[in-house]
Structure formats: structure tokens, C-alpha cells
Amino acid sequence: MNDLKNLKTEEYFLSMGPQHPSTHGVLRLILKLDGEIVTGATPDIGYLHRGLEKIAENRAYIQIIPFTDRLDYLSSMSGNLAFVLTVEKLAGIAPPPRAEYIRVIMAELNRLASHLIWLGTFSLDLGAVTPFLYCFREREKILDLFEMITGSRLTYNYMRIGGVAADLSAQFIKDAAAFIQDFKFRVAEYEALLTQNPIFLARTKNVGIIKADKAIAYGLTGPMLRASGISRDNRRDFPYAIYDKLSFDIPAGTVGDCWDRYAVRVREMRESAKIVEQALSGLPEGNFKTKVPLSLKPPAGESYAPVESPRGEIGFYLVSNGTAKPYRLKIRTPSFCNLSIISHVIKGWKVADVVAILGTFDVVLGEIDR
Length: 370
Known about the structure:
three-stranded antiparallel β-sheet, 13% strand
């Protein structure tokens, strides 16, 4: 017994990723462990770096749009929209009303698709296979809708400076409305499997708590911020497109734990369905794009237009010198800022909890590395 009392533990380092399935991309976490307890963590990024901001300085404005698809590739519409809004703000271009409605429909459908892939993979991380299959079932239907209009299922290149690339067909409007009606019942299915599941609660309740003051200090946005009790959403606080004409709620948590981050995203899916329903019913007739010169030369100046993506605030800071190419482009991506708090959050938790905590961050490495 005396020998056992004199035993000493030794800290060691564990490399989690960049091939680990629970890091959801080429993210490497260098965990400092004392047994099963995490005493320190360092995120190692940069494996996917492509230099998009520098590439953009050598492309015409219209040529940059496809690159924004490759940032948050699970929500390409948000990247498209943030960029074209920034250019329109700088050049003084106003898209027609129909285009504004279409943008909101596509952005919110993409939010649903993104949250579905998050919920499915997060539940799989915790050992629940059925929600994964259910979520991908609905996501496929959304991708069918996108393919009908854009021809693509992941990177859409759909938004245009002054509008959108193609109008919505009558079949799309009919199928989208039918999907939204069905989706309301599907969300209840997900919750029946997870929300009060004792195993799910044990893995998420009071785990990985982020207090409101820390969330603000680290610059968190989106569901990560709202789960900590801060009701901030660009769609309501800095409205763009037609969001100021629509009725929807901004879900927020109270504790800031993994369960709150789950609950906020599930409630957001219901709100996105409401938004799409309103936008479809109010879709006006008219043009889907205003005429814009192919070689657009915005006046010298700078602009920034934030958009509420599924992960938080994405925005493009654009500097023009009056030529057909931007002088400077800087991208503010939510996953990059949200990941900054990971070292603070997972200290003191076990290795198995790291999987749950990181899963609720919903990071996309394409917009972290850029």
C-alpha cells in the first residue's frame, strides 16, 4: 500500500488528428494528458491552406465567387452571399426584389443542410447511428433541390453580383414547399431520439461549458455564442436581403454547454423552415438579376458585409483601387474564431469528452485554413 501511495503520474502528449474522424477535417489537436484528464490542448491548423485571399487579388470580381464555395463547403451559399453583398455595397448595386427572396430561400435551405450534416455526424461521434441516417435522408432532399437549379450538390457558384445565376422553376417552388411541410415532422423525430436520451444527456449536459463573458472575449459568433445566452444574429441585428420583412426567433441557451449548443441548432432548423416558408409564399415576380458589367470596376474604397452562416458571422473585407480586381481581400470566417476557445474549454475534461466538445463546435476546416 505504501508503494501505491508513492506512485507518481507523468504527463504525456497525445496527437488527435489530423486523420481522426472526430476532428471532422484535417485538424490536429495536441492534447496534454494526465492519465485520461486533459491538462492542455493546442490546435494545429494549416494542413489545408490554399491562399484564397491572395488568389482573389489576381482575379476579376466575378471570378472570385467560385472560390467562396470552397471556404465553408457545407454552406457554400453563405460564402457566395457574403461576397456578392460586399461587392454590391462597394459598387452601389441593388439586386431586384425577386433575387433578394431567392437568396434567402437558398441560404436558409443551405443552413438546414449544414445543420443536418452537423447533427448526423455529432450523433455518430457519440455512438448514435440512427440520427445520422435520418439527417442524411433529409439533407439529400435539399441537395436534390439545389441540383435542380444550380446543377451542383455541394459547391454551387449560384449567387451573382446583382442577383442570382438562375431563376427558381415552378417545380422547385413546389418541391421546396412540400419538403418544408415534411421537414417539420422530421425534426421531431431527431429530438425523440436524442433530446431526452439519458446517454446523450450524460455526454452533453454540463460538459464543455462556455460562459457568456468568455464567448464574447474570444469573438465567438453563431450558435456557439447564442448557446452561451447571447442573442446575437446578423439576420436580425444587421438585416440584409429581406430578413427584416420576415418573422422568426433567435434561439439562445442558458448554460453554454454541449447540450445547449445542440438545442440551439435544432431550434434554428425549425426557424429556418419558417423563413423558407414565408419567402416562398411571398416570392414576387420580376427579374432575378440586374445588369452588371462583366468587367466590373467598383470605385476606390472599402466595404464589409457580414452574413449569418450556419457557423456564425462570415464577412469579406474588400478594398478597391478602382480596377477590375480587388486591391485587398480579407475573409472573416466563424470557424477560425470559434476554434480559438478550444484550449480553454477542454481543460479538465477526459479524452472521450473532447470528442463531444469539439463536435459541438461544428468547425469546417476549409474556412479555418482558407
